[in-house]
Amino acid sequence: MATSPCSSSGVSSSSSSGLGADAGLEIRTRSVEQTLVPLVSQITTLINHKDKPKRSDKTLQAIQRVGQAVNLAVGRFVTVGEAIANENHELKEEMSVACIEARRAGETIAQLTDVASLDHPESDSHITIFTDKTGVVKAARLLLSSVTKVLVLGDRIVIKQIITSRNKVLATMEQLEKVSSFQEFVQIFSQFGNEMVEFAHLTGDRQNDLKDEKKKARMAASRAVLEKCTMMLLTASKTCLRHPDCESARINKDGVFHRMRLALEQVIEIVTDSRPNGENEMAPISIYSGIKDFKNKVEGLRENLYFLSKESLSTMLEVILEHTEDFTDSAYTSHEHREHILELSKQAKMELEQLVSVWMQAQNKKTKDLMEDLEVAILKTCQCMNELKREVHSAATSLAADLLKYHTDHMVLKALKITGVEGNLEAVAEYTCKLSEQKEQLVEMCRLLRHVSGTEPLEITCIHAEDTFQVTGPQIISAAETLALHPSSKIAKENLEVFCEAWESQLSDMSLLLREINDVFEGRRGEKRVYLSLPRPGKHNANLKAIKPVKLDTEEQAKIAKLGLELHLLTSDVDSETEKWEDQENEIVQHGQGMSSMAYSMYLFTRGEGLLKTTQDLFHQAEIFATEGTKLASSLHAFSDQVHDDDKPLLLLEAEKLISMCKQLQTTARASAQGKSATFTKVDACILKTRNVMTLLCQLLPLCCKLLRKNKAGNGCLKPAPPWKEDRLQTGTNAHTPERRAETFGIKSLENHVTNMTFLESK
């Protein structure tokens, strides 16, 4: 199947948004945003230009440049649209019409803004933007309308490709369910593997391009299910073919097929932004989100005493306290946590009663004393909610830490494998009961963690983990029962191993998820960690006050977006490397984590987000980043004294490279830049040099780990891990980074399944 040139440029229409009178457009993907926002910005500049009696040559040239830029951008855009039309005949006519309209509108705008060479641009003898403002507005509307059509049509093609790919996978799955011989199974599974690889590529592109972090997380969860279930489907089907009369083997296989179908359906729901039978998606409600909304309402009383009713506030608190019952009713919550949560719930009700009382009085009589009393009541209510939030977080994370530590030895799984091979049905039944108990504990852990996860993507990850334990537990049991009934079956043994690995993998992922939840709670990650060292008024040299703070505009953000994304990926790589160190207090690790945090805040700046608000903030952050890099180089020099002479030159060489790069970054960050263009060039250079330092850091951290192990140094070492787990670390560490998901979603493993088909019958 030919891939559409705009395979990651999807959007869909929305009447609620207004880019023009004739077209509404809800932008759902980053690539479309990067294409469209500069165009809209340029058109808006033209339409909103101020009518001045006298116009300088500079103004006229600027207007002409903008008009030409719009026309050129439209030309490039239309070229892509025409290529799509040629590849998709069913939409060729609609796409061609939209492209012709867009090109015509772009040319009209270029003609109307061709004013720089005219002696009298206001003259009626030559129609321009100054004499025909209405014409420019009409051309702009036509342009936005036609561009909208091209984007929507392009998106329909992308969605159609994914649906077609899904349908092919489903059709082949139906054939796989019905096969009765190994030879037929080998042939069909080979086709299935190729189709899954294609589906993985298409959905990976789509996931990377989604703007909505919640949808990204849902897509990542569905694709993770498909990745793990592919291997399960292979071994479960083989077991069923080898033992066709075994009921537990059939149950095991049916469970895999059912889960894969659900995951495929969810991908299509996300891609088409629809729900079956038109039902609305119910957003998961957590204690964290409830407390956040409640506090926002309470604090809003400072600005407006009349914007909500006391009943609505009371209802919000009731909902939060109902959710705390998930903790107080849980058999796994400690007595101390339960008592504290109940006490804080009671206190929250009392604080709200006091707040409402003062609030009602202030509505009737707004005196200074009453407003002061209201402020005290607001502070006390918010403080109580913060303490409640802290208590439920402590209850959930301490339970999770204890359970993950307790189950880290996988004793029940090992026992099931041993008793299964022995054919000991009684012992298998005993250990399946223990696994069911373990499953209930882990499911409860996921439910409680969801309440305190802190972000919607992490909430969705908790829900996915809960589903995984719910489904995988019974599948392990049916696989173990099959092995106990056929203890000499190599294929049944292999099948149980695959399901046990999936369980172990999910436990490993939970450790990483727990760390992320704690990071969000402790502020080490905003939606990820953010490290700030901003200049404070009066605390730095005087010349900072003379520098006017500047923010990047949307066009500049679009230009620097790719560099920012590269920086984002590098921070994930560095985080992955630092998490492999057992001694998190090691100086090398701490400097590396600090640099990663600062680099992440610089990445957020490229998107117009985070706490670095102006270019001056960015330059100061770059200086601090370079200083931290220099400190890391000093730590590397100290560490070099501990390594063997053979390894020392390489380490020192890398340390010197780091010092040189940090000095270059400091020089760039401190250099003077006057004017918009020079400032943007300086921003670009700072981000580029930061990226280069992070690239070197990605090489340094594993090198230091290797040398630590080799020399058995006492101040830090890498955790030993079996080979299969190293692969999981690469995927799991960045489980919420969509770019990584696209790379690691079972493409290689699927290709391996297809390659190894010839060995199926020998097992």
From TrEMBL:
It is found in: Cytoplasm. It comes from the Eukaryota. One of its GO terms (biological process) is Rho protein signal transduction. The keyword Cytoplasm applies. Keywords: Cytoplasm. The keyword Electron transport does not apply. SUPFAM superfamilies: alpha-catenin/vinculin-like. It holds the Pfam family Vinculin. Residues 1-20 are annotated as: Disordered. Residues 7-18 have a biased composition (Low complexity). GO terms for cellular component: cytoplasm. InterPro entries: Alpha-catenin/vinculin-like_sf (IPR036723), Alpha_catenin (IPR001033), CTNNAL1 (IPR030045), Vinculin/catenin (IPR006077). GO terms for molecular function: actin filament binding; cadherin binding. PANTHER family: ALPHA-CATULIN. Belongs to the vinculin/alpha-catenin family. This is Alpha-catulin. It comes from Smithornis capensis.
